[in-house]
């Protein structure tokens, strides 16, 4: 009998039985035995029609034999009991799915039945009472929240419009790593901070700036780690919902304390934004918080967006987005360092596309097929959510011919499917080449490979994760060679959690490999990317007289906003609807002036016509 799973549980209330005398203990023991007999009767009758699984004990069900590494433990169960099996988690039925065909049945054929979540007590607390997107039951409110995320926050055009924020944060990390050249660096921690800064910049970057944002970033790192730990504690309240009220282990109590810290930050941010909006300040720096508050004011009265839901959504973005992406980048770095051949191929591809005398731009990413294959392979072998986020059927139904009761907790073991030898050749080997033929994608249509899930509850952050992962990993391996500190060995052991992480943090030493130290500093001082400028003439030598097509071709290479040096003057080229709106609508008054050419000055009687006159009373 394995009691490993109970260690955190025992640790969380060691005081329980210590308070009682001998008689009290005897009474409790007799009641306990009677209760067990009753439960035994119930359980032996309650497995009828359910999938096969290990024999449960009265009261505890199969909790006594759970291993904390749930993903590997569930994979071993499926070896014995087949692709659908059951466990008794105290009073709750757990169903484990471990085949593409059954995953399809749950996530596609019976998608609407399984679109609910099994919300743990800690999750209920951290989502402001199930008011976020992750835990909200499938229905009109979930649809409204999902629309807000997909359309207003994480769509491709919104992400395009804030690419400069990603660049700023990533360049800052590269600059920091350069300052640590030759010294050990905690890679995961650095990537966590980078992704977190990008996300918080998008959320309220226009609301707060500089040092204030940095100190909030540090505060968040502690709080997010604490939340992940509280969600991963095996909690009696989840296994025996009838006893949830007692909160024996104090998980909910601890979560309330953590939430208070978060809430204070959110309140300050919302307050600050509302003040700016009232005074008409900061209209030019739109962030998600501003968008959300506007949506709240303009929402359909039948489906209003409340302040609590806004805070819960902010919480999803911060907690869900940062560690998922940064953990995946850390695994990628470990796997790549383990396979020098992969690192060499990756660096070669980057040298061809970017060059050693240039920095990686986000616009390079679509020209890097090997990097894309590396990302897919990392998400195959270490899927960030190895059991997805548990689904919960809204009615009793059958899957694979077995009964799945309403309210059970359904785990889809995507980790095991991604390592199934009948699907993957040498499944435990890290081999990006298997993805080079573009046969597999993670859009959720293929149940052999679905690291972001599938169906209605598929991840909303796929585009964001893809951009951050590829851009960060490309910059890390393009800018530096990496080695382990003396005497350290490389390992890629996993530690289970709702978000999979590396058991031991990856600590590695960066050695700069670019031609010019200036490439590690923010040498373009935040300007958009663009072709290399020559001294004095800038980019004049390469201008094509057909400016409209030439600029279009530049935007293919450098993205929707790029720069050119016309001699001493800076030219900025905008090539996306979102950025055109930013210039011509959101920041209309700032951009309402003209850049008057010498000939125009002449032909307008010295800038006196409507075409060339500066914006103002005249
Ligand atoms: C490598 C990065 C990531 C991976 C592998 C990943 C994977 C997943 C998976 C497997 C699910 C659950 C699907 C299901 O239950 O069927 C999910 C849900 C979700 N993810 Fe991600 N995710 C990543 C990054 C992100 C980012 C960057 C964000 C936001 C900024 C995000 C926000 C969410 C949200 C809000 C949900 C819940 C959606 C719903 O229930 O409707 N994720 N993700």
UniProtKB/TrEMBL annotation:
Protein name: Cytochrome P450
Entry GO MF terms: heme binding; iron ion binding; monooxygenase activity; oxidoreductase activity, acting on paired donors, with incorporation or reduction of molecular oxygen
Family the entry assigns: Belongs to the cytochrome P450 family.
Cofactor(s) required, per the database record: heme
Key words, A-Z: Heme, Iron, Membrane, Metal-binding, Monooxygenase, Oxidoreductase, Transmembrane, Transmembrane helix
Matches recorded under PANTHER family: CYTOCHROME P450, FAMILY 706, SUBFAMILY A, POLYPEPTIDE 4 (PTHR47951:SF3), OS08G0547900 PROTEIN (PTHR47951)
Signal peptide range in chain numbering: none
Residues that span the membrane, as ranges: 26-43
Protein's UniProt keywords contain Cell wall biogenesis/degradation: no
Cross-referenced Pfam families: p450 (PF00067)
CDD domains with a match to the protein in the record: CYP76-like
Superkingdom, taxonomy of origin: Eukaryota
Acyltransferase as UniProt keyword: no
Residue sites binding heme per the record: 459
